[in-house]
């Protein structure tokens, strides 16, 4: 079976968040199940070295934004189909923003071009290649099922996966002509959303199936609280909506042979984890004689992630004897808030603004617990990395966090099943309360090590979800 995935990100080539990790890992997980997945991806500057190594398989002169060529190449085990349109993608900054942190003003054109190219590939423009399924990811790829449906075709079938419904690709109606969209589809039962074009809504209306990245999030987005204005659309199509939990690449995230660690370890050699804690403390300037647990944050620094509430809880966390290490970038006020916290609590709090992939591995290996106090979280991957590395997740009760972490309540501890800590009140007081629970558990080494081993045994790979995707593809075909 041939599946064409469409995405604006794919690890390890270009990454701003969990979307890239999913798109980078899923093709490999599907291959043993008889599914050949290729990924259509913009040729950003970091992918330019791959272009001469590939084969030009198609060219277009009428995409939104002009001409483009399509280059097929395999790299890092991922079959890629690169959309080479330098006028759209050869830019400094990130995939979506410029160097000053502002959205590129032509993002609608850039990702419409990506989507139209994918739809054309599904129509057979590459000799010898005909996908059975079009699988689009998030708003940047959301017009691909729309363009495919505009041709009048019913094959191949299409799927849209929502990684975060907060990002929808909303633009004024004046862009319809630029994007070659049918104006008679611009109505409330089609592409129109409160007077604007909503790319994600288009995919929700015209795809054959809708998935999101955890069962709980699939239920949450049917409500006004979490649906971000699209809950009504989703309720109307709830018969084709499902939540398939993300997994992680357990080869990349494996403490037994992770080259970014000071010392490798597994569930049977947990004592070796301490060497990573010492290395992380030394690198960040944290004192090494602290008696409490070392908490970490590896995240975009945004209010969605509940990190403003964490700032309120920092004094209490430090007062309990705990330490905090923060790695991430995001809202300027939160970046400054954690810098200030590190200055105020020198030796107990450390902040690294930016993103560093090897350092993120050391954060996971060297910390005792990972804090994820998100106000909403479609799936989350960092808690899965934490489980894998025996770094106990401390998570808000929402989305995939609730689906993947077993709270250390009395019953779960008695059943020897607890893998972390789950709480409901995302506020300074709520986080302080769960910090107290973590500190108390950490003070009982026997309990703590039992929870670590539970966590490291918890299934976090793609195996189960890849089979679910394979079954969905098969049903559609």
UniProtKB/TrEMBL annotation:
Pathway: Glycan biosynthesis; glycogen biosynthesis. It holds the Pfam family Glycos_transf_1. ADP-alpha-D-glucose binds at residue 15. It catalyses: [(1->4)-alpha-D-glucosyl](n) + ADP-alpha-D-glucose = [(1->4)-alpha-D-glucosyl](n+1) + ADP + H(+). Gene3D superfamilies: Glycogen Phosphorylase B. Its EC number is 2.4.1.21. Keywords: Glycogen biosynthesis, Glycosyltransferase, Transferase. Residues 291-436 form the Glycosyl transferase family domain. Residues 2-235 form the Starch synthase catalytic domain. It is an enzyme of class 2 (transferase). SUPFAM superfamilies: UDP-Glycosyltransferase/glycogen phosphorylase. It comes from the Bacteria. One of its GO terms (cellular component) is cytosol. GO terms for molecular function: alpha-1,4-glucan glucosyltransferase (ADP-glucose donor) activity; alpha-1,4-glucan glucosyltransferase (UDP-glucose donor) activity. GO terms for biological process: glycogen biosynthetic process. Synthesizes alpha-1,4-glucan chains using ADP-glucose. Belongs to the glycosyltransferase 1 family. Bacterial/plant glycogen synthase subfamily. This is Glycogen synthase. It comes from Marivita hallyeonensis. The gene is glgA.
